[in-house]
Amino acid sequence: MASGYLGLWYAYQDYDKEKGSFSSYAFIRVKYEMLTMLRKDSTYQERHVYFASDSPELESLLNLTPEHIEPSDRHTLSPYFHPLSPREQLWMIEHAINDQPPRMIAAKHNVTTEAVKSWRKCTAETEKNHAVTSFIIG
Fold first, then answer.
1. Which residues form the RNA polymerase sigma-70 region domain (predicted)?
2. Which 8-state DSSP code applies to residue 67?
């Protein structure tokens, strides 16, 4: 509904009398905005999984720790963990492997979301510096 109103507003803003009637342009613009909204919603639903707050699946996901990582994943990621601090490793595991957003990581480890975001920033900086050093040396 809101996307239809938004499309009508855009049509009103962008309308050019020399290119045709307003009703035709408005119809096309509203249709475009509604289809765009449907496409975005569909993509979002395809990429996200919903759990009930009391589901055992959610509980098991929230209780994952570095020990729960498959040995093959640990081996694959070990070169990236080497230069990282324990907090940076924690962020890498929770975000990159468990696909947890910063707010979920913060809640799980009783820290602020800003702290988790700083771990992310430090991890990126450490990995960037390590990659440059490895490239120069190796």
1. 4-41
2. G
